[in-house]
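Suppose a colleague, Dr. K., hands you the sequence of a protein chain of 121 amino acids and asks what its three-dimensional shape might be. Before reaching for any lab equipment, you can write down a predicted structure in token form. Begin with the sequence itself:
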Amino acid sequence: MSISRFILVRHGETAGNKDGLFYGSTDLPLTEHGHRQAAAVADYLHDIHIDTILISELQRARQTAEYIRAPENHHYHCDPRLNEMHFGEWEMQHYREIAARFPADWETWMNDWLHAAPTGG
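The predicted structure, expressed as tokens, is then:
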């Protein structure tokens, strides 16, 4: 019996990460630093056998997967269920702006983000 492993890799940096924005479903590309991060992850995973690569439909995930699949030309499969949530009125806003505009919702989110929803999200 073989043992299955699930390796979760987060995409490399985007301008949204760098700028402190909430950008869930906004389709941002990797920054130069994000490309270097993706290459580093691919290097780290180089000696690990990979059967399948599943990614969201967003380009940041696709760009990251391109580095991981390259050595053995793995195929990857896009699954919309892996797409990031939409942050509603918070989408592409800095956290300080969100806290100022939606203080009650922000406090709820900060106290229990697993059970809270962004305003309009």
